[in-house]
Amino acid sequence: MDHTARPTAIEVHHPTPLAHLDPHAAPLVPAAPYFEGQPVVWVPDAYGRMVPMPKHLAPPPVPASEPRDLTPLPLLDPVAQRFIGAGIGGGALSAGAGYGIGQALTAAAGFTSGASMWLLILLVVVLRAPARAVGGGSTVNIRKAVIKRNRFYG
Known about the structure:
Oligomer: single chain
Number of helices: 2
Largest sheet: 2 strands, antiparallel
Order of helices and strands: EEHH
Helix content: 25-40%
């Protein structure tokens, strides 16, 4: 910026008058409403009455919706049903396997203490029994003894 230069006068803008917009200078012409000649449609208002409205201001028509599938849906998704079934079935299988293993272990523990004692007693009884009772042979021994003694006490 040069400080040595002298300031010059500011030029003022003087616009040209707009004579054609001055209401006193121009003759009045009757103006036609804008919506004249525009297509008019009848639309319902808030109270259900039909009122005229310029077509370009009217709301767009509502497009017809596509038909919906109204078949009833299952209560649970089929995949969810399979997961639930697998969970319940797996739980039942695990519970049954655990119960069965427990029963087998209990039976084995009982066999080693009580049942083995009874088997030992049965073995001793069978070995000490006579062979004919065990074998069930067909030999029959009959002994008949007749002893007569006469006594007279008189």
